[in-house]
Design a protein that fits this description.
The chain is of the alpha+beta class. Helices cover 27% and strands 26% of the residues. A ten-stranded antiparallel sheet has the order 1-2-9-10-11-12-19-16-15-14. Strands 6, 7, 8, 13, 17 and 18 form a six-stranded antiparallel sheet that branches. A six-stranded mixed sheet has the order 20-37-38-41-39-40. About 2% of the residues have low confidence. Pfam families: GH94_b-supersand (PF06165), Glyco_hydro_94 (PF17167).
Length: 812
């Protein structure tokens, strides 16, 4: 069943009931300030770092769902309700939530009173704006009160929820007219504070949670709202909040609008301190003045919408496939931008505390946003490379605020280095900017170690060359892409303690997946060497790539599919020799998309095995058979129940690898079938099964071995977004950025008669019309550029042109 619908013209998903299977969220913010906003007004906000600079509290895994957010309570006589339904859950006469590009609109109607809240983070400002519009739709006068509510976090989200012996004594606030100032930590000279204000005189306020809620009460029945009168409480320690009371009267048909600002303020670094705890209120006043009127708020929202229109206009498809169009043109690219901002740090499944920006994650995410924000992609690459070690390995994660590697997680994920080559190659193909290779970048953020970025790539490449195991395959280290495949974790005898290295020679477990990565991205490294005039190094690199290719064919081929790995005992993982986990999805996709086994006939066999053994109606599972028992020598992968996560769940991140692989062998029908099965817009009508948002991808869907087959988890922050966009835009639709221009090489369903792409590439706008008169799946027979037929399928790049029209004809 559906819980809403797509409004394609407005680029919004419209939720028509608050009772969605899970909270369906949106992300507000595209610079430094971010809010996570659910369809019932739940969520929280932060500045730059969800752990270290969190403004408002959120309680995960709560009962009921999604309890705690940025709320507006309306007391109309004896009735108390919220425009977003939560937390009071009073049944509304009508409800609607519109999640758009960087904004959400909540509309509730109760007893003839309509309340609409438009929430967004304006560009150029460090705040969330909430425009509350109240309309009396009845034929009698309405006298009522509105109570706003947020609960402040004491900045460090981890410390906030653990260090109660200290934090219960640190909360401090001030009130400046209609502005509540949360200044906890300010006396420590941290220069920052939070504000929550409204652009009108107020009838009362509260800053102390216990006073507002009342003893043994909750968000659903706060005492102040029930009584209809604020207490003007001043928090001192305990839990500071922000709440304003506005009492008003509306004539029939009358409307009034108020602008609320929830923001982060910071004093200049050179500010002279007069005394501890005295807040410089100038930044707060400036922020409130920026949104003092409805017109100012509307102009900021219009600016935000125009930003997204310009951004999303860089890649646009028109085809007969409505679902594909809306995902490619809007939601997939939008999600890619969210992963740029968040990596895997802050969602409704990631607390924003345990993880920062991922090295591997951010490199892959770049595939989905480099065409949108190339200048920011460049800086992201520099940030990522700065966390690399001198030996070519890297911190697996880094904190977005400090941009320093996370020592708690450390390094040892041996696929990480190769992803840096992948990201840099994607950036240069998109931009033609080779100067990035000359950029001076430190190792481990130690400036004295800085070398050109090209040297970082060299060490990434050589790390794999110098870390190979008994079968000459790359050593897996702690894990490769699959963090749960920990093959160097074992116990020699039952009952012995958990170890992190192999039996005697050290960590000898090997990865066929990394070998496939090395083949694919090793070729990219060789190409970059050639274009830098390093011909000898390029030749040496290609020789290493060819040697790895041959190694995969010998040590990595199992007869009907590619082996996944070798464990610390040199036993095969992902082989017909195994009782469980005979075949894994990762090497079947990545080996083929790297070109391994295509000419030998292995590719078609491997992909046929995937379709026969791993495919299901909801997507391709990660492995089969699922592990029924725990295997210490395999690590975390077998710790999950069958059908969930890495133990035979449908890991959406690598389904696109299979789709791309199918395009490599010309199977357009099959490639699109794989794409369609996990595409949210195509499965919107089973939202009661899928449960997560029908407008964005999830990390995982429960596999066929699971009790809840088809149920998704971990939506929004997943590499699925970038890989799916790369798959549909470059492999299926076939518009591929390359070093010397755009390549047109679609592989589509035979029933698709054609499509038109608008693609902004290096300041040139290309309109590419692909025609498929003979129901082909792959193979360009003619390419016409501005009326002139050209050889091959690459559009010659001409920087002097601003508009280029291309016609490409498919013919088998």
């Amino acid at each position: 069943m559906k819980y809403g619908y797509f409004d394609d013209s407005s680029r919004e998903y419209v939720i028509t009931t608050p009772k969605t299977p899970l909270p369906w969220i949106n992300y507000l913010g595209c610079e430094d300030f971010f809010s996570i906003k659910s369809n019932t007004s739940g969520g929280y906000c932060f500045y730059k770092d969800a752990k270290l600079l969190r403004l408002t509290r959120y309680r995960y895994n709560n009962v009921p769902f999604d309890d705690g957010g940025h709320y507006f309570y309306i007391k109309d006589g004896d009735t108390v309700w919220n425009p977003g339904w939560q937390p009071v859950q009073t049944e509304l006469d009508s409800y609607e939530c519109r999640h758009g590009m960087g904004y959400s609109i909540f509309t509730g109607v109760k007893n003839g009173l309509k309340a609409q809240v438009t929430s967004f983070v304006p560009m150029g400002y460090t705040c969330e704006v909430n425009k509350l519009t109240l309309t009396n739709e009845s034929d009698t006068v309405k006298n009522f009160s509105v109570f706003s509510y947020v609960e402040f976090c004491l900045w460090n989200a981890m410390d906030d929820m653990t260090n109660f012996q200290r934090n219960f004594s640190t909360g401090e606030v001030e009130v400046m007219g209609s502005v509540i100032i949360h200044k906890t930590e300010y006396r420590e000279r941290r220069r920052h504070y939070a504000i929550f204000g409204v652009n009108t005189p107020i009838n009362g306020f509260d800053t102390d949670r216990d006073s507002f809620l009342g003893a043994y009460r909750g968000y659903h029945n706060p005492q102040v709202v029930e009584d209809g009168k604020s207490k003007n409480s001043m928090a001192s320690g305990w839990a500071p909040i922000g709440s304003h009371q506005i009492t008003l009267s509306l004539q029939p048909g009358e409307t009034k609008t108020y602008i609320y600002v929830l923001g982060y303020c910071e004093n200049p670094a050179d500010q002279k301190w007069e005394s501890q705890g005295v807040v410089n209120k100038a930044p707060a006043k400036a922020l409130m003045e920026a949104f003092a009127t409805e017109a100012q708020a509307d102009a900021a929202l219009d600016h935000l919408k125009e930003y997204w229109s310009q951004l999303l206009g860089k890649f646009h498809v028109e085809s007969d496939y409505t679902e594909m169009n809306r995902m490619v043109n809007v939601w997939n690219q939008y999600q890619c931008m969210v992963t740029f901002n968040m990596s895997r740090s802050a969602s409704y499944f990631e607390s924003g505390i345990g993880r920062g920006m991922g090295f591997r994650d951010s490199c892959q995410d770049l595939f989905g946003f480099v065409h949108l924000i190339p200048e920011k992609a460049r800086q992201r690459i520099i940030d990522i490379a700065s966390t690399q070690m001198e030996d070519g390995s890297a911190y697996h994660q880094y904190q977005p605020l400090t941009k320093r590697g996370n020592s708690d997680i450390g390094s040892g994920f041996n696929d990480d280095p190769l992803w840096l080559i992948a990201a840099v190659a994607a950036y240069i193909k998109e931009t033609g900017d080779y100067s990035i290779l000359e950029e001076s970048v430190p190792f481990d953020n130690k400036e004295e170690t800085a070398v050109p970025l090209m040297e970082h790539l060299r060490r990434s490449f050589n790390f794999t060359v110098t870390h190979r195991g008994p079968h000459k395959l790359p050593l897996i280290g702690r894990a490769d892409w699959n963090d749960c495949l920990n093959l160097n974790c074992f116990s020699s005898e039952p009952g012995e303690s958990f170890q992190t290295s192999g039996p005697s020679e050290g960590p000898v477990a090997e990865s066929v997946f990394i070998a496939a990565m090395f083949v694919k991205y090793g070729k990219e490294y060789a190409m970059l060497c050639q274009r830098q005039g390093l011909d000898k190094e390029a030749d040496d690199a290609l020789a290493q790539v060819d040697d790895m290719y041959q190694t995969i064919l010998t040590a990595g081929w199992d007869g009907e599919w590619f082996v996944r790995a070798y464990d610390a005992y040199e036993n095969k993982v992902g082989s017909h020799e195994c009782e469980d986990g005979k075949i894994f999805i990762e090497p079947q996709g990545f080996c083929v998309l790297a070109g391994v086994g295509i000419k030998e006939g292995h590719a078609n066999k491997a992909l046929a095995s995937v379709e026969k053994i791993l495919d299901t109606k909801y997507g391709i599972v990660l492995l089969q058979p699922a592990y029924k028992d725990y295997h210490l020598e395999l690590g975390e992968v077998s710790s999950y129940p069958p059908g969930y996560k890495e133990n035979a769940g449908i890991f959406c991140h690598n389904n696109p690898w299979i789709s791309i692989a199918e395009t490599c062998v010309g199977h357009g029908n099959r490639a699109f079938d794989v794409y369609r099965k996990i595409c949210p817009a195509y499965i919107e009508n089973i939202s009661e099964i899928h449960r997560t948002e029908p407008y964005v991808y999830s990390q995982m869907i429960a596999g066929k071995d699971a009790k809840n087959f088809g149920e998704a988890k971990n939506s929004w922050l997943t590499g699925t977004a970038a890989w799916t966009f790369l798959n549909v835009s470059q492999a299926i639709l076939g518009i591929q950025p390359d070093y010397d221009g755009l390549v047109v090489d679609p592989c589509i369903p035979s029933e698709l008669s054609g499509f038109t792409i608008t693609r902004k590439f290096r300041d040139v706008t290309y309109t590419i019309e692909v025609q498929n008169p003979n129901k082909s799946q792959k193979g360009i027979s003619k390419l016409i550029v501005d009326g002139v037929t050209v050889d091959g399928n690459q559009i010659p790049y001409d920087a002097s042109k601003k508009q280029v029209h291309v016609v490409a004809v498919l013919d088998a």
